[in-house]
Design brief:
With 380 residues, the protein is mainly β. The protein is built from 2 helices and 23 strands.
Length: 380
């Protein structure tokens, strides 16, 4: 996910969470944005042991983390939906202090909820921001739960799977259960995902690449049953991008043959790929293979300009050298741009055979760090 979202979070919540009773909100924001990246927090410097279910919960010694779920759902009469649910935690102080007042929240939280109605060609997205204090938002490991107001992702009553998610706003609601079909995949070097050359500009990163999803989608007061597949990404870190990095293109693809592919293409400011772009190929049985930048070639085939003037790639060809396979990735429709405090593109996509256009799977794509400008003609 995009570290710039954390800056948007800071600007919006520090007046609530970081300012003392005698400190104007604007000064709190300014002071925090001027602090060094590490702010006394731990950094992702070395390989660590992962432990589940503990690592599903929060990591307060690190500044930022997120719980991020996307997926594609099928409803009755050929209806199809894409969804994104994300909870962001931003640490205002390192660790948890015993005996701290319930009013003195040490973390700020932001949540994003988006639904793509494929048949209706409608994308709707919501954002909420809160502080941790008095249980307005928070996260815990046992039993697992992360929440902001009444939006929540939590484990079953016994603490295991299936996990349950529910969010509702403005007549749109999503209620789902998630049950893993594969074990967690440790991304990068055994879970240490380096994002730039500087030591510590990295995250601890794991994915659950194939979650069976079932529940209901409610639109306009009408609830309908849905089933499909979801993908969970979990990362925590204190710093990631270098000054010359603009953002990334992130692909999560679930193929009909039972395999899954994740690849993030880190982009430098002048458009070239960063050498630390990487990903993973996940077999049917859950075994995974780390992919370095040279293993995957991403070719942009089309671009789309948003109503706000931001332009994004809108069709791609991915060549996966270890398998000799080439995939075409196409959004279900172009306008799936998230437009709140942060602006980025996050949408449901189809995976196609580039020669026959035969469907090969589905997935999600995230595009960050793009800016307003002219649409350049691109293609083969």
């Amino acid at each position: 996910m995009n570290p710039r979202l954390m800056l948007a979070l800071l600007a919006a919540v520090l007046a609530l969470a970081a300012c003392g009773p005698d400190q104007p909100a604007g000064e709190g924001v300014s002071a925090t944005l001027k602090q060094a990246d590490t702010q006394g927090f731990e950094r992702a410097l070395a390989v660590r042991e992962f432990s589940f279910p503990a690592d599903h919960g929060p990591h307060p010694d690190y500044r930022d983390e997120w719980w991020y779920v996307t997926g594609n759902l099928d409803g009755p009469e050929g209806r199809r939906y894409g969804f994104q649910i994300t909870f962001f935690r931003h640490g205002l102080r390192r660790g948890k202090r015993p005996g701290t007042s319930r009013w003195a929240g040490q973390d700020a939280y932001m949540a994003h909820f988006a639904l793509t109605d494929v048949r209706g060609r409608r994308y709707t997205a919501f954002q909420r921001i809160s502080r941790e204090a008095i249980d307005l938002a928070g996260a815990r490991a046992v039993p697992f739960k992360v929440w902001l107001d009444d939006w929540r992702l939590e484990a079953a009553p016994g603490g295991g799977f299936p996990w349950h998610f529910r969010a509702a706003q403005d007549g749109i609601a999503l209620e789902l259960e998630f049950d893993p079909r594969k074990p967690p995949v440790l991304q990068g070097d055994r879970g240490l995902s380096q994002k730039s050359a500087e030591p510590g500009n990295a995250s601890y990163y794991y994915s659950m690449t194939r979650l069976a999803a079932s529940g209901t989608v409610t639109l306009g007061g009408f609830a309908q049953p849905v089933t499909g597949l979801a993908w969970l990404d979990r990362e925590w870190s204190t710093s990631m991008l270098a000054p010359d990095q603009a953002g990334w293109d992130w692909f999560s693809l679930q193929l009909d043959d039972g395999s899954d592919l994740m690849f993030f293409r880190m982009r430098r400011k002048y458009g070239e790929d960063d050498p630390l772009s990487s990903g993973a190929l996940v077999d049917v049985d859950g075994g995974s293979r780390h992919l370095m930048r040279e293993a995957v070639t991403v070719t942009e085939l089309e671009r789309w300009r948003s109503p706000g003037g931001y332009y994004y790639p809108s069709r791609w060809r991915l060549t996966i050298r270890p398998t000799g396979r080439t995939l075409e990735i196409r959004p279900v429709f172009p306008d799936q741009e998230f437009r709140h405090d942060a602006r980025y593109w996050e949408g449901a996509v189809d995976v196609l055979d580039p020669d026959t256009q035969r469907p090969l799977g589905r997935g999600y794509v995230e595009l960050t760090g793009y800016a307003p400008g002219p649409v350049e003609k691109s293609g083969e």
